Amino acid sequence: MSKMAEEKQAAAGVAEHQHQQQLAAGDSAAARVRPVETLLRAAPLGLCVAAMAIMLRDKQSNDFGTVAYSDLGGFKYLVIANGLCAAYSLCSAFYTAVPRPTTLSRSWIVFLLDQVFTYLILAAGAASAELLYLAYNGDKEVTWSEACGVFGSFCHQARTSVVITFASVVCFVLLSLVSSYRLFSSYEAPVPLGNKGVEIAAYPR
């Protein structure tokens, strides 16, 4: 019994040593990629602010009337989504720039926030793109005529804002891939517990 206990204790010590080595290697790798990830997280800030500013100034008046972004719910959602994503981009860039130990809980939080804001800005871009499609082409089935022939400047400015929004979507997708890789690559192979064949995944706390 004592020999078996010693073997288990020795095995546990080796596993703990390997675990510490993996954590050290992970922190070293994180330190090398931190500047790149910080720049990647800061990139959507400028894009979101630019898309929001262009849409906020989108208004046109002529003999047929006046149209502004605030007249369309999809464009208002685009402004709000870009504002929220710009704020998150700034906060996450500061968070990434400051060196700190990588933990499972922090990795989960960053992963979930990246997912939320990626889908938020993607939904805003998709909704605005649909509005632009109807504005350029109309909908014959419901007798909606196209509006961009009359309000061309308004449509052009809205299109520019939507294109910039989709550029920020690309950045957020890349961030989601980075955070998901960091989270799920932190898991180790399952290790057996005792002789009952029960296995659990070991990961850093």
Automatic annotation (TrEMBL):
Protein topology in the membrane: Multi-pass membrane protein
UniProt main location, coarse: membrane
The entry's keywords: Cell membrane, Membrane, Transmembrane, Transmembrane helix
Positions of the Casparian strip membrane protein domain: 32-171
A Pfam family of this chain: CASP_dom
Matching InterPro entries: CASP/CASPL (IPR006459), CASP_dom (IPR006702)
Compartment list: Cell membrane
GO cellular component term of the entry, any: plasma membrane
Membrane-spanning ranges: 38-57, 77-98, 110-136, 156-178
Subunit architecture: Homodimer and heterodimers.
Family assignment from sequence similarity: Belongs to the Casparian strip membrane proteins (CASP) family.
NCBIfam families per the UniProt record, alphabetical: A_tha_TIGR01569
PANTHER family attached to this UniProt entry: CASP-LIKE PROTEIN 2A1, CASP-LIKE PROTEIN 4A4
Protein name per its UniProtKB record: CASP-like protein
Organism: Eleusine coracana subsp. coracana
Lineage: Eukaryota, Viridiplantae, Streptophyta, Embryophyta, Tracheophyta
